[in-house]
């Protein structure tokens, strides 16, 4: 058996040299600068744990420093000062959170001030589930890998005095405060307070951990930054305002800025492994997660397991043709799409109640990190198609949140509703899933939950605080200069259109009528003078003076959130034809949309307008514009470089835009089970389907004349029948194949 | 049964109005200013818990503020800004420590900043085991009582919005950092880091607590002082640098400055009780202590029990005659002498290992807070005589510390050796106890421990770091300007004299010879030129320039610690006759000693010279000086006023000086079982003896002609035999009576 394992390990190791596995095409450095806010750390697909190099503090050379500006990622490619591995991180988000439990190796005299102990580095590399870096200051090789709920770091030290530091005081989160207890010379356990995501002061939650080192230190202790004292008091306490080293105290410690240190005499090349288990329930669960997921195995075995998980998941889509770079963009995008939502429950099934203090137990996977204003647009559609078992658990998670908290999620983070961004994004996600035939959830409860947020008065309505205006007027008037009122309403419209769709499907005729009518309320905002949507004042008049361009580059804009009128005007994906009619028909619609691209009003870095390129394809004869733009946008904004994502990846949403676009179909209207088609990047795309959900095991998308030099589509066949540029998901599955003929 | 209890309660309540109980003579406000560092809080005899008004922070009107100067007590009588009840405090010490878990009632809008929520007060009163205060800002009556390990506070609120705050951020201790967990709406549990006593940075230890309120709040949450942010970061976080209120987060919280708040709607006169259990082992033990000691009983029952404990203990000495004020001084002194050492073990017997991380279990009482440089002089002698069962447990505690840590204690604090002050003070305590016939401990182990600290080289010697010089030269030379070298050596001499005494008793002749010789080394320091002890330089010459007065009022002095040559020159209590010989005989000895008093060189506020007045009585015909001085010193320095203790009470040492002095006998040489006699303050003193230790149940001291107006003694009878001015403890016990005839 042992021999077999050795053979297997050799095979896997060799495998990385020879056959190209999907993981070989992933470049985790893509999206790690240019505000992509991805990171190159070690993580498993949809895993709770990620072990991420933290390089955004402690050096004046940092271009991006967490304390010097709004900063939301533990790592930026352009920085160069490593201050440890952060455990549990967010990928591709726009607010600072998590990124704590910082683990750092050093050599020489113990120094626990990160401004001193941080190091420049070289030989940085990353593959799915693995990260490595060489610390030039110390000549230490640091490596990291992960299981779903635990991290494992391996440090290769030079000969001499070496140290391992666990810093609980710093992190990306704006919360502070930690508690730690020593279990043995080699093990500490504790908790840290996290939260205040997007400066929501009450969205606070604890993380619990157990950290274990595989070598007994020659000395170990704690540190704590002491509060500054004034006057005579300061004279007596030599540690005031400094990091005090606790050399003889090994019981419970707590404070804003504490840490643990471990010192060793190491031989040249000696490797020490540090395992970290976490839980959002308890220290006990963190330990069980660690014990069960690592089972005392060493680094190589954990790394290989993580890599295998990625190959299994990435391998659900096989692409042929295209360049190596295109494959890299594609599989890295898929990698990013498989990070959030991530599992929340411990290995024993326990998880923290949504917005409550209970500890509950789940049967399936309980997910967290629902950045729904982003991900409802395409990521859940990708899950539904390729990872339906996960999408099913995500839907059931959302319904359980309703059971526990009374609300479906908006922007859920580790059991807290952070209420970030606006709208009612769970509705399209659930309806989209249902309409695509994934129905293993309580649709009546789901309808109850959706109906609640659609109809409850604003004061009691967590999802739609301006619901009184909305239901009475059909729109939300601008009551404060920067109240994002139009953006709010646009989200309600699409949510209500989903609700209409479901009501109709459930034969709730009156409801269907009501919500359809509401979903059409967007027309109130249409201003003929500018040809855009425009904020409306409480007296019913349009807001003046009005500039449709105001709001570029995240500057504030009356009525619009993170965008301007151009970025939002076409965001009525459920009624593109109706919008065109308002605008005077196809030509003005198409001309204006083309103008948006031509004049650079299109913002590829944020969600509201990301489906714009697909809207041309609603109109016969204009589909080429979609095909042209998608090719151009992919080439320009999605590259293999660290800046190869146009802005925040938004928990995988930007990456998913590229994934669908490269496969030749895109779900441009959340809640409507349809795709708009465009020229695929690859010659052949084989998607493994789950027969349990889809009755068959694959979907094949092919370019039938790949050698054609044209970028444009001549004809498309769905199964054996020619089809148009928008197809239904269920028809696609039924057909099992989609064939493109280029011109 | 219920009826009986009601009757009993009424009887006890009435009892306080009629018959004078010992507790009626206690005025807990004595020693609460003038640096007495006593406090008027509620405590049980030798109890772990004390509930003490905290009035030394938050107001610019504070004459004494913990953050503005060296300040070592939670309460000063002259301050007037109440910021809560502190749980577990030190009494009569000179370094800041403990005084945390601050419990405060307020009314109106929640404000968790102590600078705002503190209140002026009136109607302050205290009796043993009970304290009450009326908060004028809020019209709240606050009361406190205690069991040995738990506190109970009762707040009587006006009608309206009321709050209870638990502040874990502030306290007397210079350590910070706490952790808290919510058990229910009415209960929180947690820990706080304490320590750094006398600015020893490694003497750190945890306190665990469970706090329970007997009414469910209408709202409850936490607070935490947020760390200040700079620049743009500060703009985003509205709580930065402020006390942030957590209104929706109720899981684990940790930080430097955290608290819990509870809000209520109260009726006029509504009483809410808050119980606090503590432990130095664990939260679980804190809860068990609370459950078992309070058993859900209400305030009146707990208060009566505490009072009864005091009456039982104080009642072991009955004094007759004397003024009411003298009785007040006496019983308040006895009250102060019965606060430290206090029990450390939980109700299940568990306690933290001395200087280690283990949790151990004791059979007897495990004591802590051994301020031995102070208490070895008289407090343990009082325990031996009147509370021998406690002294026995204290000795066994000291030996267990040796078993656990390898050293007898010097200044032990909750399991940590703080190494405060100098010398080897356990030796006289143990030998004194043994010589007085309390021998229920392992004397061989004790000898081993004493021998170790007397003989181990300085480098390895925790008690005697300068043992190399001492054993080689017979004295400790001055190697640094303020190294306290003479003070060190003087402590070693008396310790070695004790060791000589024991070696002799154990028939260890060679050892006896060695340690006797060492104990006489003080003679090296005697300088004929000045007639005082004088520091010696490493080259063997006396230190120059020399001023025997340098060191008054706690200014630094070469060679002497907290005093000058005058305060130390007569501190060779084991060889008074030898010292007199050095000085040229009785007359120069007496004249110089009298001069010390006449010129005001005597410092009644610190330990080194407190036995000086008794030294006259070694010389026939000079005993009147002792009698005169003791009467004068008692009258001048020990009064019923808040400033009625001359300086730090030093964990009861100053109070014990008054107690013995008022009873007419004083143990002026620790380790030698003898008393020097003086005129008793009272006509009759009846001391209950424990027959288990002394074979009889009382000792009676009488002034046979109390109506005499003379302050001077004519004759004394020990039993039925006339005796001199120094008597042996064992003779006194044997006789059972001591009779004074005044002139």
UniProtKB/TrEMBL annotation, chains A, B:
- Taxonomically, the superkingdom here is Bacteria
Give the GO biological process terms. carbohydrate metabolic process; glycoprotein catabolic process
The UniProt record lists the Glycosyl hydrolase family domain at 285-740
Entry keywords, A to Z: Calcium, Hydrolase, Signal
Q: Where is the signal peptide?
A: 1-19
GO MF, one annotated term: peptide-N4-(N-acetyl-beta-glucosaminyl)asparagine amidase activity
List residues of the Glycosyl hydrolase family 92 N-terminal domain. 25-279
Essential cofactor(s): Ca(2+)
Q: Which GO terms describe its cellular component?
A: cytosol
Q: How does it assemble?
A: Monomer.
Question: What NCBIfam families is this protein classified in?
Answer: aman2_put
Task: Tell me what this protein is called.
Answer: Glycoside hydrolase family 92 protein
* Species name: Phocaeicola coprocola
**Source taxonomy lineage?**
Bacteria, Pseudomonadati, Bacteroidota, Bacteroidia, Bacteroidales
């Amino acid at each position: 058996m042992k021999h077999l394992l050795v053979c297997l390990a050799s095979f896997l190791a060799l495998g990385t040299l020879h056959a190209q596995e999907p993981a070989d095409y992933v470049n985790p450095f893509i999206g790690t600068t240019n505000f992509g806010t991805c990171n190159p750390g070690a993580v498993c697909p949809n895993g709770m744990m990620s072990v991420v190099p933290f390089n955004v503090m402690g050096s004046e050379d940092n271009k991006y420093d967490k304390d010097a500006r709004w900063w939301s990622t533990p790592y930026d490619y352009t920085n160069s000062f490593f201050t440890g591995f952060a455990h549990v991180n967010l990928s591709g988000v726009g607010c600072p959170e998590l990124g704590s439990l910082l683990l750092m190796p050093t050599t020489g005299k113990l120094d626990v001030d990160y401004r001193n102990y941080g190091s420049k580095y070289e030989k940085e590399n990353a593959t799915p589930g693995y990260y490595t870096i060489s610390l030039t200051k110390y000549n230490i090789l640091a490596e990291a890998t992960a299981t779903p709920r635990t991290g494992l770091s391996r440090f290769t030290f030079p000969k001499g005095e070496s140290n391992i530091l666990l810093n609980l005081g710093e992190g990306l989160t704006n919360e502070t405060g930690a508690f730690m207890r020593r279990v043995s010379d080699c093990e500490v356990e504790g908790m840290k307070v996290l939260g205040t995501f997007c400066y929501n002061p009450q969205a606070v939650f604890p993380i619990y951990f157990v950290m274990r080192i595989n070598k007994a230190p020659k000395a170990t202790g704690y540190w704590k930054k002491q509060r500054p004292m004034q006057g005579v008091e300061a004279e007596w306490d030599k540690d005031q305002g400094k990091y005090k080293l606790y050399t003889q105290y090994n019981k419970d410690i707590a404070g804003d800025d504490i840490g643990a240190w471990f010192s060793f005499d190491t031989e040249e090349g000696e490797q020490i492994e540090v395992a970290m288990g976490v839980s959002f329930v308890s220290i006990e669960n963190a330990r069980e997660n660690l014990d069960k997921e690592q089972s005392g195995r060493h680094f190589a075995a954990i790394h290989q397991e993580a890599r295998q998980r990625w190959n299994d998941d990435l391998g659900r889509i096989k692409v042929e043709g295209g360049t190596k770079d295109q494959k890299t963009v594609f599989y890295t995008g898929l990698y990013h799409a498989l990070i959030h939502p991530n599992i929340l429950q411990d290995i024993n099934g326990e998880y923290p109640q949504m917005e409550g203090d209970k500890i509950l137990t789940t049967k399936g996977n309980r997910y967290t990190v629902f950045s729904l204003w982003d991900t409802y647009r395409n990521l859940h559609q990708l899950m539904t198609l390729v990872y339906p078992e996960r999408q099913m658990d995500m839907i059931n998670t959302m319904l359980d949140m309703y059971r526990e908290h009374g609300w479906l999620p908006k922007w859920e983070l580790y059991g807290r509703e952070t209420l970030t961004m606006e709208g009612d994004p769970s509705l399209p996600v659930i309806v989209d899933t249902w309409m695509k035939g994934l129905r293993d959830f309580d649709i009546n409860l789901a309808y109850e939950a959706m109906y609640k947020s659609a109809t409850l008065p604003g004061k009691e309505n967590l999802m739609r605080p301006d619901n009184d205006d909305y239901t009475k007027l059909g729109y939300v008037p601008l009551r404060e200069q920067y109240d994002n009122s139009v953006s709010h309403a646009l989200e309600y419209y699409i949510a209500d259109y989903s609700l209409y769709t479901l009501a109709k499907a459930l034969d709730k005729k009156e409801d269907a009528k009501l919500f359809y009518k509401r979903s059409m309320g967007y027309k109130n905002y249409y201003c003929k003078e500018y040809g855009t949507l425009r904020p409306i004042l409480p007296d019913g008049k349009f807001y003046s003076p009005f500039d449709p361009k105001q709001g570029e580059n995240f500057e504030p804009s009356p009525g619009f959130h993170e965008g301007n009128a151009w970025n939002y005007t076409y965001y009525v994906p459920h009624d593109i034809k109706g919008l065109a009619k308002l605008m005077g028909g196809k030509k003005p619609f198409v001309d204006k949309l083309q103008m948006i691209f031509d004049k650079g009003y299109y913002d590829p870095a944020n969600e509201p307008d990301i489906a714009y390129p697909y809207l041309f394809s609603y109109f016969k004869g204009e589909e080429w514009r979609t095909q042209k733009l998608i090719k151009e946008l992919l080439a320009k904004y999605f590259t293999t470089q660290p800046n190869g994502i146009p802005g925040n990846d938004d928990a995988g949403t930007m990456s998913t835009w590229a994934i669908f676009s490269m496969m030749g179909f895109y779900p441009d209207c959340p809640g409507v089970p349809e795709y708009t088609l465009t020229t695929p990047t690859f010659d052949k795309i084989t998607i493994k389907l789950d027969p349990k959900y889809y009755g068959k095991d694959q979907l094949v998308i092919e370019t039938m004349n790949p050698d054609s030099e044209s970028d444009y589509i001549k004809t498309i066949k769905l199964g054996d029948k020619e089809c148009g540029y928008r197809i239904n998901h269920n028809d696609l599955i039924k057909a099992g194949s989609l064939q493109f003929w280029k011109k």
